[in-house]
Amino acid sequence: MHLFRNISTLCAIALLWAPVIVRGQSSAGIPRPSATGAPRQQDTLSLPAIPKDELKGFKNLFETSTVGGVTGTRLNPMAISFVESYMRKYGKGLRDMKKWATPYFTLIDNILTQHGLPRELKYLAVIESGLRYNAISWTGAVGPWAFMPAAGRQYGLTVTNGYDERLDYYKSTHAAARMLTDLYSKYQDWLLVIAAYNCGAGNVDKAIKRSSSRDFWKLQYYLPTESMNHVKKFISTHYVFEGEGGITTVTKEETKELLLNKATALNEEELKNSTTHKITGRFHSAVILKYIEMEPASFNKYNPGFDDSISLNGTYELRLPVAQMNRFIAKRYEILDESIQRILDPSGRH
Known about the structure:
CATH topology of the largest domain: Lysozyme
Largest sheet: 2 strands, antiparallel
Mean pLDDT: 78
Strand content: 5-15%
Order of helices and strands: HEEHHHHHHHHHHHEHHHEH
């Protein structure tokens, strides 16, 4: 999955608009380009604007940030210089993309959620292809997820001279999700997954062996330069779109630290008057709060890193005051159903 050789290509393709071929799923609601290739004015969607200068307060990335409503982790110091330069060069192009990419992101989000993957992985498609369905890299990787022919076939896509499902947004996103799932099962580290998606698991394995480390920041210089930078482009793009880092922008060990450091210690009385219940499934904290009538700050105190952790692991040891736990248990199936609907349709149109 090689990215285009020249980094400037990203900025160019980020400004292009191309129709999406989606077989097996209606493309209704996806804006069509005007004759100039840009989205028509009536097709652009109103989105919260990224600050005019996304580098304002950039120094604060060294400090703890907010991720999923709870205390997050700082940007790795080894990424600061690259991210700062990247945001200066390509921030405008990515902000422009944010104005027209919502239909694409909605499709990708839904599919990633179905596969139990973090939705932030959609930014991999941004750096692979600029979201263009017909993108072709210098290595011959094709489509929004930049599949080489062999990898496309391996993950269920038909690739022949007359028919190429790598161009199919719906099918190629499912294929990418299957590949990302396999890579995560192997590495348990999203930064290594991003690297392996670009240069192949073999090259990542060699880097691990040569560096005697599974920490991206320690093994990065044993990777192909393009792949090392690919990971940093992903982190940078995440920061441009989200304004912060997240579960997919840190190493395995940093993830553990992130989740552990989110905890605000409960006092003895709070522990005594609370109880735990192991849950499985894609519960969403906002839906739980609605049903148990609890404030977000209080819920986060009892359940640090809830949304990140359950998205990553699928299970969670939920802790709540006894009264709220009783409400949760009584309504847990309704809560789970509404949570899934919310995740599949973040706009709330379900």
